Amino acid sequence: MNDRKVVLITGANRGLGYETALKFAREGHIAYTSMRDMKKAGNIMTVAERENLALIPIELDITDERSIRACADKIIEREKRIDILVNNAGIGYLGFITDASEEDMKSHFETNVYGTLKVTKHIARHMIGRRSGTIVNISGANGIAAFPGMGLYSACKSAIESLSETFCLELGYFGIKVRDIIPGTVNTGMENRPYDFYKGLNEADPAWEGLPGKLKAFYADNIRKAVMPEKAAVIIYKAAMRKSGRLRYSCLGQTGMLLMIRKILSDRWFMAFFKKLVFPYKQNKAE
Ligand SMILES: NC(=O)c1ccc[n+]([C@@H]2O[C@H](COP(=O)([O-])OP(=O)(O)OC[C@H]3O[C@@H](n4cnc5c(N)ncnc54)[C@H](OP(=O)(O)O)[C@@H]3O)[C@@H](O)[C@H]2O)c1
Prior knowledge:
The protein is of the alpha/beta class. The chain has helices spanning 15-26, 42-51, 65-79, 102-130, 151-172, 211-225, 229-241, 255-264, 267-278, and strands at residues 6-9, 30-35, 55-59, 84-87, 134-138, 177-183, 248-251. It has one domain (6-278): NAD(P)-binding Rossmann-like Domain (Rossmann fold, 3-Layer(aba) Sandwich), CATH 3.40.50. It has a seven-stranded parallel β-sheet, sandwiched between helices. The longest helix is centred in the middle third of the chain and has 29 residues, at 102-130.
């Protein structure tokens, strides 16, 4: 293969990251399938052997500077380069902003924002040296519009939106391409995560007048109807491989429509639309 890329995908032991790594490897590229716990590499090794793919598990905790350095050094020593970085690793669970603990706040920002920043800083330095490379950030519809019950996650994804623009402007100066992928809901098995996706919604709390239960039902229904990660991985792959291309790629679900509506409507109308049509809010007559 002529244009064989060396790709590093973060948080790739499962979900969207795993499917993205698989897509790159199946297209003939070298996919460094990173994960913070190497005990989770079993499935990847089996697929790599069975299909004879360059799907290489490597340890990387995106919140740990030493781990980032060790991972990048190992790949560069072996391959002499990293062509594409896919910033996929992330966490997110439901919960109201007023109920969020300090631990909830820290974990969201440490992984989704600081982690992504730390990895990008390190790999971008290497790419600047080569005057070449592509950085792909996985943002989310929540970065375009804050969703109720997902305030911390939405704030993190908004930060990724802003950082993607900055990377595009600063790193673009050196010929480095930046892609911001905005998936809608993707069914990556939220119920199989190491934490409870619904943990912050307390249905027993009378203060919320039943809203936690309604939101739980709304999100569960959304997940049931969501696309599978293989489909999203194809969009990520195509966006990463395009020679010239735009910054933002809406990725399945209703994200394209959401982006358009957000642009067209004023804030007032957008929020009214969101409250009335999208979420099962009790309308507050005082508003
Ligand atoms: N699924 C969706 O509906 C959706 C929609 C929009 C955007 N996204 C974004 O797409 C990305 C992937 O989502 P997903 O649904 O595939 O999530 P997922 O199934 O929960 O997978 C997340 C991955 O990130 C890893 N991770 C978490 N913290 C890490 C850390 N400190 N260092 C390294 N890896 C870490 C996890 O590893 P462990 O297994 O060790 O926990 C896991 O491999 C995330 O950025 C998410 O925000 C998802």
